[in-house]
């Protein structure tokens, strides 16, 4: 793992946004590259890529061993970014995440020893196994994109994307993420098991030499930053905004707790990134519809056990008029 | 949540902004207008009655007075007082009516049940025109509803004000006097009054009026499809001669009315046979009230009680035995019947005028004996009879009635014809002679508009017995001679010394004139010769054709016309110069198309059958194309309702969209144009496969169509969708692209027009 650019706090770069078509091509390249390693999860790859472009964080919830870590790593490698991994355990402390000031005997000064959160792409593995205090250290970093240790605030590198995984199999030995903190993830994805063909392919590839070892970057960090600037310029016309509002409103009408305004913002951002991936500089309702099933459900609480967030969102998509 | 039209499409809605122009004041005027129309609807029915029986001026004056009184008193007296006053006026009016008709008010106490029964009879479909002294009845009837409804309308109580008017109208509907148009108009006006009154009180807007129009139209359509209006007299039973296309059917189509038709047919079938030592016309009906287009018998029949009053003077008793050869709705007798014998005589009824009628049609083979009083005064005796008519004849009956508004020309002509005559008898003979000599005989005549008697006297060259008899009666009445219109059969074919066979062709109408001390004497204004010819031709024709029931065992092979022409001066009842007549021209094509049935092939005296067919065709066509005023009015109401309904249900919007589908007017804004173009495309696609789900985006819709239907989606459609997205979501589109897109959609939509589209593809 490299930690070359974790030291200096980066100011917001005045990077010129790229052409939409160029970004779309870039995304295609990244996805193709990652797909060499991750087999059978093309949709998930695209979702992660759009999340990165849309300045969001991703929560992967799944059983162990379906390639969550591999996905995060291969994306990080493809875009030539630093990749950090934090394995959350019940005894992990906040300082283990953010970093600590260490006394340097030679300089007789305290030096900041950055924690693993200082990376472009940070994998928080099994985040629900750490106690809430530690969880919230990461989640604060996600929201603020900066870390405060001993009164000193340090910016996190740009881009900064957290891909957290959650283990859904051992509920009695985990600390469930608080609802408010779940909201900070732009998307919650479930990879699921690959289908038989994909799994056979996967086995073929990984026997002997793992393809991640030979994975080469297809772009660099600066280009990625520029691409993110491009996404920010994507046009969202009022009909689309209204559609998003209607959709979100519908979830509020039909659930105990519906999607928050933060969720709406996340939805539009994801849709912007999706539009760029599809080579458009404006958002269509279609983009909203593609993103809604991964952006909205984890922000919804129902009291009724027969319906979960996914059902609510699916119903809303079926019910809410597009225009 | 915002509605979908909040985006671009929203500001295109056209709003009807008439609310400012239509305020409570307008609604008040409309409501009052509706009350007026309701009033007019039933007053017009009553007016029609008075036009026939007289009293038109009194009626209008009374209605006017009631309006004035109601307006003046509107704020002076309280509703309760007004109601009591109106009811009191009504009661007083009917008391006067009872007194006038000689029944007496006292009867109300002693025979309240009978009065109720009479009212019920009236409400069960007895037309007003059959009432004795209908003019007085009308004047008694009208003040209460007019006063009360107007009083309430002025006070703004519209819902209440339609109650008296509505009751009056419903009553007239039940009597069968109010026609469909009056009923409809009254009903609509009543609803309108309530609705507009409500709009006034609650400050409704004109936008609600379209719903009202829909309701109106609904009522019109409903009332046209469901005939709750009893439509006057009951229709004929299924007995011989009841066919409305025949002369018998026209004359006796209902037992208390006798119509005057247009062209008629004759049935050559044998109706009945009579054994009688004396030849006579066989009378079946007597009518006294003339409406201008038909005859009505006033008063109710009473059950036959074994004896009928005979004529005042000398008479011979003549006994006849009548055998029905087919089912009959009448009881033919020689005038004047005195007594009946036979099984069913306990079911016979006697009219006020002295003619017997069967309660229900008698059957084939039924036989009855009649004793009749035959008066046979000499001309000198009749000349000497004078004019000292009993009050009963002049007052109780309508034997002197003429419709109001008969022209002075008619009176002048009557005076002219009878100028040389001094006595009623001479006048009658003069009129009879005039008619017989100046008019021809034809069954094929167009029914004139307006007063039949006047039209026949002044305009027509020919007619049949109904026209002659009607005109003669009216001429006599104009000269103050009591006369009445009678129907029945001529003596028929004499097959033995004392036996006569009477056929449908013998149906006839003639005249009876009253002479003091002698009673009713028959006159025959119809020229005999030409009637004979037509009659016998018809029977011979039927015999040749082998039609059934043309002959009895004894009548076959006998010549039908047994003309022993006597002088035409006095047509005595025993005069036998009137063999039956009437040819079978058929222009009543509505009911009887000109086909090859024996009944119909019989031509008129001059026409041959091919001409007849052509005539029939044109007549038919003309009748089809003629739109009566009523029909036009109903059509208009229905149309207005349909338009309002269409507006209400959005059909107009849809039609506009449909028309706009194939042609798009540039609106100046390219984004709008493209959006609109896409909508047209979507509309066409929806028609061809399925409409877009509301939750479906444009491209999803297109993809879904492409995948789940076998209809191939034109690749240009995808381009259109992209342009649409660009215009709506992508921040706009330039003019050139917009025009191009519109052109593409023009092509795509026009390709779907049935005939044109094929060429387009």
From TrEMBL, chain A:
Domain ATPase AAA-3 as annotated: residue spans? 57-186
Q: Which GO terms describe its molecular function?
A: ATP binding; ATP hydrolysis activity
**Which domain of life does the UniProt lineage start with?**
Archaea
Q: Which InterPro entries match?
A: ATPase_AAA-3, CbbQ/NirQ/NorQ/GpvN, ChlI/MoxR_AAA_lid, P-loop_NTPase
ChlI/MoxR AAA lid domain mapped to chain residues: 254-309
Its recorded name reads ATPase AAA
Q: Which organism is it from?
A: Natronorubrum sulfidifaciens JCM 14089
TrEMBL record, chain B:
Lineage, top-rank taxon, reads Archaea
Span of domain Transglutaminase-like: 457-527
Compositionally skewed regions (Acidic residues) per UniProt: 547-602
Q: Does the keyword ATP-binding apply?
A: no
Q: Which UniProt keywords apply?
A: Membrane, Transmembrane, Transmembrane helix
InterPro entries, A to Z: Bact_TGase-like, Papain-like_cys_pep_sf, TgpA-like_C, Transglutaminase-like
What residue ranges are annotated as transmembrane?
27-47, 59-77, 83-100, 107-126, 132-151, 158-175, 181-199, 211-229
Q: Where is the composition biased (Basic and acidic residues)?
A: 529-546
Q: Name one Pfam family in it.
A: Transglut_core
Task: Determine if Membrane is one of this entry's keywords.
Answer: yes
Disordered: annotated span? 526-616
Q: Which PANTHER family match?
A: PROTEIN-GLUTAMINE GAMMA-GLUTAMYLTRANSFERASE
Please give the name of this protein: Transglutaminase
Question: Lineage of the source organism?
Answer: Archaea, Methanobacteriati, Methanobacteriota, Stenosarchaea group, Halobacteria
